[in-house]
Design a protein that fits this description.
The chain has about 260 residues and is mostly helical. It has helices at about 1-30, 50-60, 85-90, 125-130, 140-145, 150-155, 205-220, 225-250; strands at about 95, 105-110, 175, 180-185. It has a domain at about 25-35 and about 45-70 and about 115-245: Cytochrome Bc1 Complex, Chain D, domain 2, CATH 1.10.760. A two-stranded antiparallel sheet has the order 1-2. Residues about 1-25 have low confidence and may be disordered.
């Protein structure tokens, strides 16, 4: 009897700890900002001008610290870039190739078939350049996080001065949407930091929307194709169901 009582008390205590932990986590992770993205919904598609601007933001602002490991230059044709544009863009990068006939690695201009090179030669170099923090690769970040697109957008626009009662953390920056509210990455965007090729005003909100659109595409470049396949499958099933019903009516007409 005593052991049963102790077990119940222990169980209640454990449940209390779990609930309190969940409450603390909820307090540390505020609700993300929500936007109506063009790619959401069954018929959603990527806003290609926005994604192209997002690529520019990535190249001019983010690429110094964050890689894009799973995106090849040739993939950019899906965003509306021509083969010549992709080839010219790739040639601006240098990649390591080899070994050559002498067993040595060498550097060459990137080709459309190459992937975006990492800004660092290895993880240790990345940590050393960022005070011990490892900048995440951005290729799949929009899918790796829950509600990834709104997460990325919220983080980018969420930098602000800490509240008066917040405990300062040297080397960290206050961001109200980051879990724990303190993040090692300084605010990456500022008004006009990028001069858009199409003349769009480069506000923090606009750049955040554009680079989020681009990174969402990078994480799931087949999104539109998958939706189109799903639509075709649904139409086929609707027609097929109608044919089956008509056949059933015809076969069993006399029996009825």
């Amino acid at each position: 009897m005593a052991s049963t009582t102790i077990s119940r008390i222990a169980g209640l205590a454990l449940a209390g700890l779990l609930l309190s932990g969940a409450a603390i986590a909820a307090e540390e992770e505020p609700e993300l900002l929500q936007r109506d993205w063009s790619f959401e919904g069954f018929f959603g598609t990527f806003d290609r001008p926005s994604a192209q601007r997002g690529l520019q933001v990535y190249r001019e602002v983010c690429a110094g610290c964050h890689g894009l490991e799973y995106v090849a230059f040739r993939h950019l044709e899906a965003l509306g870039f021509s083969e010549d544009q992709v080839r010219a863009l790739a040639a601006e990068y240098t990649v390591t190739d080899g070994p050559d006939d002498f067993g040595e690695m060498f550097e060459r201009a990137a080709l459309p078939s190459d992937y975006f090179p990492s800004p660092y030669p290895n993880e240790q170099a990345a940590r050393a350049a960022n005070g011990g923090a490892l900048p995440p690769d951005l290729s799949l970040l929009a899918k790796a996080r829950a509600d990834g697109s709104n997460y990325l957008y919220s983080i980018l626009v969420g930098y602000e001065d800490p509240p008066p009662d917040a405990e300062e953390r040297p080397g960290m920056h206050y961001n109200r949407f980051f879990p724990g509210q303190w993040i090692a990455m300084p605010p990456p965007l500022s008004e006009g930091i990028v001069e858009y090729a199409d003349g769009t005003e480069a506000t923090i909100v606009q750049m955040s929307v554009d680079v989020t659109t681009f990174l969402t595409w990078a994480a799931e470049p087949k999104l539109e194709e998958r939706k189109q396949t799903g639509l075709k499958a649904m139409l086929f099933l609707i027609v097929f169901t109608g044919l089956l019903y008509a056949t059933k009516r015809r076969i069993w007409a006399e029996a009825h």
